[in-house]
Amino acid sequence: MARSNPGTNTVNPDKPRMSWRMPRVLMYHNFGDPPAAGDPEHLFIPVERFKEQLAWLDANGWRALSLGEFLAVLDGARPPRKSYLVTIDDGHESVLSTGAPILAEAGIPSVLFVPPGVLGGPITWNPVYAGERLSSKAEIATLANTGMEIGVHSWDHTRMFGMDDAELELNIVRAKGDVAEMMGYEPRSFAYPFGTHDGAARRKMADAGYAVSFAVARENGRFAVDRIFVKGEDSLGMFRFKLSLAYRFASRVGGRTPWLRHKVRALLGLLKGRGGAEQATQRTG
């Protein structure tokens, strides 16, 4: 029988939006070199770049939070002035082989979101990454007591928008029970595949006893907390910018306003180009 995981409760899914000064939630996927077929979504973080990001956070006074500490902030605790939560989506093999050991060595807690219905198989939701495999349930279970807590990422990485009752039951309730059986504790957190959610999904999260669920830019209270998508192409300068309040504001507003979303993407493209030019200058200067 799965043991209860503290912090799981039923709360109002329509609670007001998160404070601008909430801890930053970083979203990663894969670690190491990209596949030979290419990495158009920039999901693979080179090892040295990942280590550089963690070292910069530590050197600049950012404090890594566990999920329990993050939940305490949601419940009203005063957050550290600069704090962050590491989250990882999907459960790719590189998480166990590369990402988890780096985080453990640095003493940084994290949350890994997995879709239990497809663990151990190939990626099915993006043909570009069809050659990549997810870790098996047995492999994911070895992460118990390592500082990496396991959450739910739907049953099979399905978009959580416009689902009927049966689909919500499968992707939120049954998936939660499957992860609980796998890990020996009840998962407290959920991450929406593709960051997609609606009111029905958020209400089901609350009814199912999750303590929090995560989106990307489309923030909507504690059952759609916004995250920062850290891409493999991000320079250290871009990574630093994504931690800023300016980026949080642009990301949140852009997530709800299509015309502004295009403006934000244009700004990020400009900054990325500037960062590339600076790196070229450093190499040739």
Automatic annotation (TrEMBL):
Taking every annotated instance into account, which residue ranges of this chain make up the domain NodB homology? 82-285
Q: What is its main location?
A: secreted
**Alphabetized SUPFAM superfamilies for the sequence:** Glycoside hydrolase/deacetylase (SSF88713)
Which InterPro entries does the entry link to?
Glyco_hydro/deAcase_b/a-brl, NODB_dom, Polysacch_Deacetylase
Which parts of the chain span the membrane according to its record? none
Q: Where in the cell is it found?
A: Secreted
UniProt keywords (A-Z) are: Signal
Is-annotated flag, keyword Signal? yes
Q: What is this protein called?
A: NodB homology domain-containing protein
Protein source organism: Pseudonocardia eucalypti
